[in-house]
Design goal:
This protein is of the alpha+beta class. The protein contains 13 helices and 10 strands. The strands form 3 sheets. Strands 1-4-5-8 form a 4-stranded mixed beta sheet, covered by helices on one side. The two termini are about 10 Å apart. Keywords: FAD, Flavoprotein, Oxidoreductase. Belongs to the acyl-CoA dehydrogenase family. InterPro entries: Acyl-CoA_dehydrogenase, Acyl-CoA_Oxase/DH_mid-dom, Acyl-CoA_Oxase/DH_mid-dom_sf, AcylCo_DH-like_C, AcylCo_DH/oxidase_C, AcylCoA_DH/ox_N, AcylCoA_DH/ox_N_sf, AcylCoA_DH/oxidase_NM_dom_sf. This is Acyl-CoA dehydrogenase.
Length: about 400
């Protein structure tokens, strides 16, 4: 019996359209921003073109104005968009908005969909997700922010949040808080929708990080905010998904976010390898082109192998998602591998560029300081390795082999 790796023709066609879109529209738009043109003007023009071409919200159902792509086709699209920092933004599929749209779509009331989801889908507003806290870190069940019901109409929230990505450019926030400290561990937390600005949701600062900073990067990414939540009043109608369901909803959206990061990492790594290859083809040292040196060829080969594994990994996960299979083990493995893969490939590309790679004359240095965070966000490597390792042990105890936890039941 043969194993079919053929991608459906329709999905291939969509991938080609998006690949062309990134090269023909997004990359030239990047140059316009570097030249000093207004960000909003450039992005609005880009988005208008994308919508006119039907390239909008890839994974959102058609009845909500999206492309209605399944997991496989969406994975192919996302693996193209990461080549430009305007790619996802141009099609309104950027994080953290995209995963939150999915949450609102799955769990929002009709009122919430009309008031909050609709402007997000139209690209009129942005949203952030405030879950992480200093006291809790990777353990979301350690969060201390509390939500106390005030009668039947409102909740009052108090606490603090840390690394709320995109909060400084957001119009809406999803805030997770403890509603029942006596409930089972994963049922203590609820999620609330908050309109911004709000006096009860105060951005203390955008946390300085090792990433390259500048006016444009702050607008594009929205920074990572430290937030003080003090006497924040939220109407009961803005409780999302019911009391006690915040943790499970959060894990679902984070699972997609991890994969989306990984998908974008593939195209970023591919672009880094392209830049490195173009450089070694024309760069001469000690009377010899770099491309002719075996050591350089080996470095390129290592990068190619990592990208190859990454593509297969993501396509397999997308395949399982299409069938509705459990992908939690594969998702954790992919999260670890893809974050380290892009770090390795970009680092190699910098090395092959020499001092030029260390400069900001290519995008590599800025990418490097940005992608280092991916081994921390959405759960650090260690947490996912712990999860994967426990599943390996469970598989052996259950079946006498670890195969099912290591891809032994791929299909």
């Amino acid at each position: 019996m043969s194993i079919d790796f053929e991608i459906p023709a329709e999905a291939k066609a969509i991938r080609e359209r998006v690949r062309q879109w990134v090269h023909d529209e997004c990359k030239p738009a990047e140059k316009r921003l570097v030249a000093g043109e207004d960000y909003k003007t450039v992005l609005n023009e880009l988005r208008a073109k994308a919508r006119a071409q039907g390239l909008w919200c890839p994974f959102i159902p058609k009845e909500y104005g999206g492309m209605g792509l399944g997991p496989l086709a969406n994975a192919l699209v996302q693996m193209e968009l990461g080549e430009s920092h305007l790619g996802a933004l141009s099609m309104n599929t950027q994080g953290p908005d995209d995963a939150t749209m999915m949450t609102l779509l799955a769990h929002g009331t009709e009122h919430q969909k009309e008031k909050y989801l609709k402007p997000l889908l139209n690209g009129e507003k942005r949203i952030c997700y405030s879950m992480t806290e200093k006291a809790a870190g990777a353990d979301a069940t350690g969060m201390q922010t509390r939500a106390v019901k005030d009668g039947n109409e409102n909740y009052v929230l108090n606490g603090e949040k840390w690394f709320s990505s995109a909060a400084s450019v957001a119009d809406i926030a999803l805030v997770m808080a403890m509603t029942d400290p006596d409930a089972p561990r994963h049922q203590r937390y609820s999620t609330f929708i908050v309109e911004l600005p709000n006096p009860g949701y105060k951005i203390v600062r955008d946390i300085e990080t090792m990433a390259v900073h500048g006016p444009l990067t702050e607008i594009l990414g929205g920074g990572h905010s430290e937030v003080e939540i003090k006497d924040l009043v939220v109407p009961a109608e803005d409780l999302l998904g019911g009391e006690g369901n915040g943790f499970n909803m959060g894990q679902h959206r984070l699972a997609y976010g991890r994969l989306r990061h990984g998908m974008h990492n593939v195209s970023m790594a591919q672009r880094a390898l392209d830049l490195a290859t173009a450089h070694v083809i024309q760069r001469e040292t000690f009377g010899k082109l770099l491309k002719e040196r075996q050591g350089v060829q080996w470095m390129l080969a290592d990068c190619a192998a990592e990208i190859y594994k990454a593509r297969l990994m993501l396509l397999h996960i997308a395949y399982k998602a299409e069938r509705g299979d459990d992908i939690r083990q594969e998702n954790s493995i992919a999260k670890i591998f893809l974050a380290n893969m892009v770090h390795q490939v970009v680092d190699t590309a910098i090395q092959l560029h020499g001092a030029l790679g260390f400069s900001l004359d290519t995008p590599l240095a800025a990418w490097y300081t940005h992608i280092r965070s991916q081994r921390l966000v959405d759960g650090p490597d260690e947490v996912h390795r712990w999860t994967v390792g426990r599943n390996v042990i469970k598989a052996y105890e259950r079946t006498g082999t670890t195969a099912s936890a290591c891809g032994g039941d791929l299909l």
